[in-house]
Write a structure and sequence with these properties.
The protein is built from 8 helices and 9 strands. The protein is an alpha/beta fold and 231 residues long. It has 2 domains: 155 residues, HAD superfamily/HAD-like (Rossmann fold); 62 residues. The strands form 2 sheets. It has a 6-stranded parallel sheet with strand order 3-2-1-4-5-6. Strands 7-8-9 form a 3-stranded antiparallel sheet, covered by helices on one side. Helix 1 runs antiparallel to helix 4.
Length: 231
């Protein structure tokens, strides 16, 4: 992360970035598939589940079912996700707390439901840290379209180019980059092909330093450092 583009705010996806919920999400959809004899492949998981709003997944994988059964699938997914344990991604609670204490505007951009968002924020003890939240019902087009990140930037009163996004899914990285934001991937190298500048496994090795001159330095790796000038 070596160019000099100004960064004024940081945006986080939720599932897979703030909380380690990938296995919970996959299990819930596989359970729903088993109820109706639907086969879900690994490609389906990456293309139609992770980073996608529920209605998209239902249309893509359960669109042949009668509406009443599609509603049952959605009810099962909502219940599974809303009652599962929220396990923070390593290092993220500390990272969010330090950024918030430094006065850097933070936001969440997710395809999740508000009830789950509130549970996740509480699990991080970060109720006062996020100034902007964009959830699934706030936009007509979810990820991989740029609309969620464009709306988050608008609510922050910033151009998208001044936001840095953390994403763990291909659709989320695509949405962020298409919106004009910079993006760091949480996960594997496959996110680089979608536009992530680099990837890290989690937040445990990220260091933040704040100086009296209103500058915060985020050190991701030896080769990647970001400087944020607070307004």
């Amino acid at each position: 992360m070596s160019n000099n583009r100004k960064i004024s705010a940081i945006l986080f996806d939720m599932d897979g970035v703030l909380v380690d919920s990938r296995s919970v999400i996959e299990r819930a959809w596989r359970e729903a598939a088993g109820m109706y004899g639907v086969s879900i492949t690994e490609d389906d998981i990456h293309t139609h589940i992770h980073g996608q709003p529920g209605p998209h997944t239902i249309r893509a994988l359960f669109g042949h079912l009668p509406p009443v059964d599609q509603q049952k699938v959605q009810t099962h997914i909502i219940h599974s996700e809303n009652t599962s344990e929220c396990v923070p991604v390593p290092g993220v609670a500390k990272f969010v707390g330090r950024l918030s204490a430094a006065g850097i505007p933070l936001g969440i951009v997710t395809s999740g439901w508000r009830y789950k968002i509130d549970r996740v924020i509480a699990s991080l003890n970060a109720q006062s840290c996020f100034s902007v939240i964009v959830e699934r019902d706030d936009v007509k087009r979810g990820k991989p379209f740029p609309d969620p990140y464009l709306l988050a930037a608008e609510r922050l009163g910033l151009p998208p180019a001044e936001t840095l996004v953390f994403e763990d899914a291909k659709s989320g990285v695509t949405a962020a980059v298409t919106a004009g934001a910079r993006c760091v991937g949480i996960g594997g190298d496959e996110l680089l092909a979608c536009g992530a500048e680099f990837v890290v496994p989690d937040f445990s090795a990220i260091e933040t330093f704040t100086y009296a001159g209103a500058q915060t330095v985020i050190s991701f790796t030896q080769d990647h450092t970001l400087y944020i000038e607070r307004k």
